[in-house]
Amino acid sequence: MTTLSTPEMQILQATAGDYEGVIAISEGVFMGIDYLPFRYHAWLKDPQRRMFVAKLEEKVVAFDSFLVVDGGVTAVLQGLRVAPWLRGRGVAGIIQKFTLDTLRLDHPDVTKIRLTRTEDPPPTMLNKYRLLHSKAVVSIYLLADELEETFMVLESRLPSTSQDFPPPVFLDYSEVRSLFSGPLKEEDILPGRFLIQSWLPITTCKANLDLTQRWRVQWLCTYPFSATRKIDGLNELSEVLASSDITNDGSTSKEDDISVSSTGPSITAVKGFLSLGTPMFPVPLGDGKNRLDIDLFGTDLSCAKIHVVFQLKEAVKALPTGGSVVCSVFAEEILRDGLTGFLDGITLFSRCREQLVLEMDIKPVKTPPSTQCHS
Fold first, then answer.
1. By C-alpha distance, which of 365, 372, 374 is closest to 106?
2. Regarding predicted confidence, which is higher, 160 or 299?
3. What is the pLDDT of residues 294-306, one digit of tens each?
4. Positive or negative, the Cα torsion across 166, 170, 172, 177?
5. Which one, out of 34, 56, 80, 256, has a CA that is 20 to 30 A from the CA of 93?
6. Three-state DSSP class for 280?
7. What is the pLDDT of residues 305-351, one digit of tens each?
8. Cα 295 from Cα 280, distance rounded (Å)
9. How far from 72 is each of 64, 79, 104, 109, CA to CA, in Å?
């Protein structure tokens, strides 16, 4: 590469022995809430993932990986990073090309590449990828000694679930696998009919749902009005509003109403709501600092508030004594202002404001990656 004045670069399959080198070039990534230090060794054991390091003079200078999803037809690129002293010199392009060439050669059935980025990706990326969706990001920092007070404040701001909404329920994985074959419809709550789980965009095929089970993702669901669900052997009927018409932002509306009875009031149907919560994990920000991602699916603000509290309370059960949490909430843009107001007074963590999902089509290659690099 002409932009490098260094010796030949090697690209190798990453190993456990490369961990320290990868972490060394990752200092400050994602403002200290980098997921890779925690997930690196688990990623190595994942048969659906390939990981690569670029080395100069036997030192790690870059990292990249891909995960094959959607039953083998899509790959998601994750974890790209370059040593600070080599950024802007073409190293990212070298390892990305090798990663994509390897993907095409080893997985000829893969026809699409997806990735997630924060706001303002470079124009060169937008020339290659199409934008599938974007979501608002609201991040907060919860200190250990503030947790109890924070939950009291948030719970005081919640709507009454007993009156207005069916309470959300955590799902076991038998329920997850059948979730969209019942009253909850993908097209009502999932943009493009795919999930974005902790920055990983995937479809709802069974193989992907099984992945979330391995990762111990917490699925929380609010079923649509008039839906029934068996809980502990009892059939519970979701309650409907008995007062005025209510929309997502609390205003009144006559559109898409459903009738409670022939003479009673009509209400706007809640089409359901879903959230996915990652297990809590430690991050390089400092001792006792942990990260939690909560992905929200749906556009009902009241449901969104309830899900954030339920997911937070469930996650902090695993929080070590004295630990603190950086929690990022990902939601549809229409919910940004409402969630920001709901979380008012809690310390904000300003990492990014937007999450973008990008995709491009690829074709398999018939020749192996460049012989100047080694796998």
1. 365
2. 299
3. 999 999 999 999 9
4. positive
5. 34
6. coil
7. 999 999 999 999 999 899 999 999 999 999 999 999 999 999 999 88
8. 14
9. 19, 20, 12, 7
What dotted CATH number matches 10-119?
3.40.630.30
Distant-in-sequence, close-in-space partners of 309: CB < 8 Å, separation ≥ 6: 151, 154, 155, 158
What single letter denotes the amino acid at residue 134?
S
Contacts of 31 (CB under 8 A, 6+ apart): 285, 349, 351
Cα 19-87-74 angle, rounded to 5 deg: 65
| pLDDT tens, position by position, 29-63 | 999 999 999 999 999 999 999 999 999 999 999 99
The tens digit of pLDDT for each residue in 237-282 reads 333 333 333 333 333 333 333 222 333 323 356 789 999 999 999 9
Q: Are 99 and 68 in contact (CB under 8 A)?
A: no
Strands 74-82 and 112-118, by their bridges, are parallel
Sign of CA dihedral 231, 233, 235, 241: negative
How many C-beta neighbours within 10 Å does residue 61 have? 27
74, 15 Cβ separation under 8 angstroms: no
Phi, psi of 50, rounded to the nearest 5 degrees: -125, 140
Distance CA 283, CA 36 (A): 9
Q: Is the dihedral of CA 69, 75, 76, 81 positive or negative?
A: positive
According to DSSP, residue 192 is labeled G
Other CB atoms closer than 10 Å to residue 140's CB: what's the count?
Answer: 21
Q: In the chain, what are the domain boundaries?
A: 10-119, 134-351
